[in-house]
Amino acid sequence: MNAPWKPGMNGQRDPFHAFVCDDHSFDLLRAVAAEMGWAPEKVNKGGMRNAVQSLSITASPQILFVDMSESGDPLSDINSLAEVCEPGTVVIAAGQVNDVRLYRDLLASGIQDYLLKPFGADQLRDALAQAQAVFFAPREGTVERPHMTTAVIGTRGGVGASSLATSLAWVLSSQHQRTTALLDLDVHFGTNALSMDLEPGRGLIDAIENPGRIDGLFIERAMVRASDNLAILSAEAPISMPMMTDGGAFYQLLEEFHSAFECTVIDLPRGMMIQHPHLMGDVNVALVVTEMTLAGARDTIRLLSWLKTGAPHARVLVVANRVHPGSPEISRKDFEQSIERAIDVLVPFDLKAASQAAKLGKTLAEAAKGSKVGAACTAMVKEVLGAAEAEEEEGSRKKGDSLLGKIGDLKNMIPSRRKEKAALNN
């Protein structure tokens, strides 16, 4: 029952809940739960239906035991249970059907174990102990990486910042296998969900209207899944509904993303950045998207100047988008001289690829795989990852140069000095 985009476990969960149908299982589970130091009152009467209803309004536990004896369609009911379970929950099922195919199907759907009723105390203890070991075991094949947040900012409307934001998120999640959150902060006219042929839902509007509701469970239920590793939070708020917010909800969302995902991509309109500058506080990389025009050069200069003072910690990359194969309005050389820095990535103009992406409901990077546009999107992601790593290394170096860092180094040296002294005394 692991949502693919949320690695790691929440230590604040209850350790155990159970939902059983018969008195014998109820009494046995309460006794074994008490032995393991768990609250016996977390064992409830009622099977799968009661479990789904209960977990739809409360956080799911670390280990969930559910009785499927009254289930008419076990696999369908397991899918319903998965929709209300938080990521990381280890599920043990029990039932009266002795069928190898059912057992295999249940394991394939994410169930940790299936116990045939009636089961004994020793069998139950072993299953619970194994589930506990699975919950606390480190994930195989995962690499602990610091969270990476990228803000994609267009110098002007229509330069294709949203298209590149969705492409960046797609490449990170599919080609680099990083769990990624995509946050579209154009609350009224955002296109991130639309470009992936998804309904945006009410998640972002609910977050703005009720910031107090924002937690891990809210994130799990409010975001729209685009793939196993990619989830989107966006909105199509009515034009008659002004967003009255101090930006606190956005900050809370980003805080939750840090614990739920490996990467966050923010499609950040210029106006939102200016109105809520605190959104840039934890941004590792700022991707400035522009076109090679006179207005684009002017606004790139202004954005770069703002980022230098408003987000000095962020690595800034400049992406020139929709560059025509002929002569652009301003040549690359003149554009770079105007902004006093190099363009990091050039994305060529490709009307056919853009039209194909729109028709298929796919990101530009996905629809244009194998083309020059696809190669440019891949290069853009590599630049972002490289910039994030450089920002992380610089932060670590500064920390090491600081007084606290030196004190930490000194503490690390003390044990080895003690060992040396002990060896000399001997």
Secondary-structure blueprint of this entry?
Elements: E1 16-20, H1 23-35, E2 43-45, H2 48-55, E3 63-67, H3 74-84, E4 90-95, H4 100-108, E5 113-116, H5 121-136, E6 148-154, H6 161-174, E7 180-184, H7 192-195, H8 203-209, H9 216-222, E8 224-225, E9 230-233, H10 248-260, E10 263-267, H11 270-275, E11 285-290, H12 294-310, E12 315-323, H13 332-339, E13 345-348, H14 351-360, H15 364-367, H16 372-401, H17 403-425
Parallel strand pairs: 1-2, 1-3, 3-4, 4-5, 6-10, 6-11, 7-9, 7-10, 11-12, 12-13
Antiparallel strand pairs: 8-9
Modified residues (4-aspartylphosphate): 67
Protein name: Pilus assembly protein CpaE
GO molecular function: ATP binding; ATP hydrolysis activity
Task: Please outline what is shown here.
By secondary structure, the chain is α/β, with parallel strands linked by helices.
Describe what this molecule looks like in 3D.
The structure is a single chain. This protein is of the alpha/beta class and 426 residues long. It folds into two domains: 16-133, Rossmann fold; 148-401, P-loop containing nucleotide triphosphate hydrolases (Rossmann fold), CATH 3.40.50. Helix content is 47%, strand content 15%. It is built from 17 helices and 13 strands. It has helices spanning 23-35, 48-55, 74-84, 100-108, 121-136, 161-174, 192-195, 203-209, 216-222, 248-260, 270-275, 294-310, 332-339, 351-360, 364-367, 372-401, 403-425, and strands at residues 16-20, 43-45, 63-67, 90-95, 113-116, 148-154, 180-184, 224-225, 230-233, 263-267, 285-290, 315-323, 345-348. The strands form two sheets. Strands 8-9-7-10-6-11-12-13 form an eight-stranded mixed beta sheet, with helices on both faces. Strand 1 (16-20), helix 1 (23-35) and strand 2 (43-45) form a beta-alpha-beta unit. The model is unreliable at 2-11 and 402-426 (pLDDT under 50). It comes from Sphingobium baderi. Residues 17-132 form the Response regulatory domain. Keywords: ATP-binding, Nucleotide-binding, Phosphoprotein.
